[in-house]
Write a structure and sequence with these properties.
The complex is a heterodimer of chains A (313) and B (298).
Chain A: H1 12-50, H2 53-56, E1 60-61, E2 66-67, H3 70-101, H4 104-119, H5 122-149, H6 168-191, H7 196-204, H8 209-238, H9 241-246, H10 264-271, H11 280-307
Antiparallel strand pairs in A: 1-2
Chain B: H1 18-62, H2 67-71, H3 84-115, H4 120-134, H5 137-149, H6 157-182, H7 185-193, H8 198-209, H9 211-226, H10 230-233, H11 253-261, H12 266-297
Helix pairs in contact in B: 1-12, 3-4, 3-6, 3-9, 3-11, 4-6, 5-6, 6-9, 7-8, 9-12, 11-12
Classes of the chains: A mainly alpha (313), B mainly alpha (298).
């Protein structure tokens, strides 16, 4: 142990640690790839059996072993888009209030309360929707809409039908409540990135709060705002438990927004317990899962690209 | 705002139409007031939703809350069962799932922050992790089912833990990377200047310095997976009997709530509300604690 030959500290530790970190990074890539591959392989028998008609068939018949994805895919897209139509204005209002209008002492508690909406588990939304919202819908909201909009020319047909309380409209409403906190939080965060001097200049010219929002804040943040909306859409597409409770679970394309329906996630959750391992039905469910993954991957990928820090208007 | 006191005759430029200017001003301010009212309404609605959920849970759940809920397992309808097996199952799966997912998420976050600056692989990992963060949790359940349950003959508690771990990873990745990035460069430079290898710098200096943020991430992950139902339907399945074996189907609160809420038996529905009350207030409490931890660190 002479000090004449001071050994260079070994960099073995660094090699191992960096290797572990890199390996973990690769593991995440493999995980995503694995999900895609496993769902695809699982769905392969169904894709082989039905070919492209799997996407265009509205059949779901366990007796005849004839399955199609049209109704759940339709239900998934319609509920998610309807949910966005309801959630975006509300989320915008909340974000606007939190960034520009709220007194300083209220910002944090109200902001936290809205964020807590996102923490409530999906199944709780399902129970709340089924036991609280559905009766209100059946008793007041749907009869009111049917009476007032059902007679309109052209669009009236969408607002007709018996007011069951459950159905596509109610599912979309619950979804809207669930995605509001995600969209509102993203909007609030990007609204806060607008340089104060821009807003102050506009106020200095005599603009009202709304004019500053419309002409300064929104143009400056519009790409990120769309990214936040897409993030909400991605969330709405895959929601399972809440939707399963309130959508009515019927494999039929409804002709009014109050009609029952299903979504990919709800049909998978409901039909899975009755599917034997290795059956064509299970394979069809996995194929549905694959389709849902592809749809949400595209939506979430677009959202990420729009929300990337460099992607300003 | 009264434009009438101005003597427009001396002002250069086009003559000002006072009446029109005043009307415009009134309209602009009216629009502004309407928008403000709408925004307050939107925020109020959001708060009403939260209040309604919590109020419903309290009204329907508190009545059924009794010691037997915590001392008895789920029993057939009419025999005063509790939720003991579901509570224990949920705790076990949440803790184990978090324990499996956290180290991986931590390492991925470390990789992204410390090793992957500007690399293509790093960008890909970050992108994929962010997609996984919002990916439908039911698909994670299907994935683990097809990978671990179907080939190895049966639903099991450990499959549930792994499904939850997959959900934990991206949450921990996001907070870990963000928190490590916040650390000042000078801190790292000082450590390296003392002769510490990079891994010592990360483990002994960066992790402790970012501790609050990382703990927040883990708490948020716990809160998220504790309420997950869909992935457990396909993996740990649920179990109406007492069982702590990870190799057998395992009960969990969310799955038991799902089974009970839709049943026709009044006492089961009542228990479902009790379970819903427990899980929601548990999850919200963890969320609030997580925020508190993060704020305490600033």
């Amino acid at each position: 142990m002479s000090h004449a030959t001071t050994k260079r500290p070994s960099n073995l530790g660094d090699t191992i640690f960096e290797g572990l970190a890199r390996f973990s990074g690769l593991f995440v890539l493999v995980l995503l790839g694995g999900i895609i591959v496993v769902l695809f392989i699982g769905g392969l028998p169904a894709f082989k059996q039905f070919g492209l008609s799997f996407l265009t068939s509205d059949n779901w018949d366990p007796v005849q072993e004839d399955y199609g994805a049209l109704v759940p895919v339709f239900g998934t897209l319609v509920t998610a888009v309807l949910a966005l139509l309801m959630a975006v204005p509300l989320a915008f209002g909340i974000a606007f209030w939190l960034t520009e209008l709220a007194p300083a002492w209220l910002r944090r508690p109200v902001g936290t309360a809205i964020e807590l909406l996102a923490a409530v588990p999906s199944i709780i939304y399902g129970m709340w929707g089924f036991f609280v919202i559905v009766p209100i819908m059946a008793e007041y909201v749907q009869p009111f809409i049917i009476d007032n909009l059902g007679e309109l020319p052209l669009v009236g047909a969408f607002f007709q039908g018996p007011p069951f309380g459950t159905g596509i409209f109610t599912a979309a409403m619950i979804l809207a409540v669930m995605i509001i906190p995600f969209i509102a939080a993203t909007m609030r965060d990007v609204f806060d990135t607008v340089p104060p001097v821009f807003k102050e200049s506009a106020y200095g010219l005599g603009c009202t709060t709304w004019e500053v929002m419309r002409s300064i804040v929104i143009p400056y943040t519009r790409i990120s705002v769309v990214g936040g909306i897409m993030l909400g859409l991605g969330r709405a597409l895959g929601e399972t438990m809440a939707v399963t409770f309130v959508i009515g679970n019927t494999n039929r394309i409804a002709h009014t927004i109050f009609g029952p329906g299903n979504t990919i996630a709800s049909i998978v959750a409901l039909e899975f317990p009755e599917s034997e391992s290795g059956s064509l039905k299970l394979s069809s469910l996995l194929a549905l899962g694959f389709i849902l993954f592809v749809i949400s991957f595209i939506v979430l990928a677009i959202s990420r690209m729009l929300l990337k820090p460099g992607a300003k208007a | 705002m009264s434009a009438t006191v101005m003597t427009s005759g001396n002002v250069p430029g086009a003559a000002k139409n006072h009446a029109a200017a005043e009307a415009l001003g009134r309209r602009r301010h009216r629009t502004n007031r309407i928008v403000k009212v709408l925004c307050v309404t939107a925020t109020g609605l959001g708060l009403v939703f939260l209040a309604s959920i919590l109020f419903t849970l309290l009204i329907r759940g508190l009545g059924g809350l009794s010691p037997t809920v915590f001392t008895t397992s789920t029993l057939p309808p009419g025999s005063h069962g509790g939720l003991l097996n579901a509570i224990v199952g949920s705790l076990m799966q949440t803790v184990l799932g978090t324990a499996i997912g956290t180290p991986i998420g931590l390492m991925v976050g470390t990789y992204l922050s410390e090793y992957a600056a500007g690399s293509k692989l790093g960008d890909a990992v970050r992108f994929v992790s962010d997609v996984l963060l919002s990916a439908p949790s039911i698909l994670v359940g299907l994935f683990v089912y097809a990978l671990l349950v179907a080939p190895f003959g049966g639903f099991s508690g450990i499959a549930g833990c792994i499904a939850l771990a997959v959900i934990v990873i991206p949450i921990v990745v996001r907070t870990t990377e963000d928190m490590l990035r916040l650390l000042p460069v000078a801190l790292r430079e000082a450590t390296v200047a003392l002769g510490a290898p990079k891994w010592r710098m990360i483990v002994s200096i960066c992790y402790p310095a970012a501790k609050d943020g990382i703990v927040t991430g883990i708490l948020l992950a716990v809160a998220r997976v504790a309420g997950e139902t869909a992935p457990l339907l396909f993996t740990s399945l649920g179990n109406l009997n007492w069982s702590v074996s990870l190799a057998k189907p395992m009960a969990s609160l969310p799955v038991t709530i799902y089974q009970y809420a839709g049943s026709a038996f009044e006492d089961w529905v009542q228990l479902a509300w009790v379970g819903a009350l427990l899980i929601t207030f548990g999850v919200l409490a963890i969320n609030i604690v997580a925020r508190f931890v993060l704020r305490g660190g600033k």
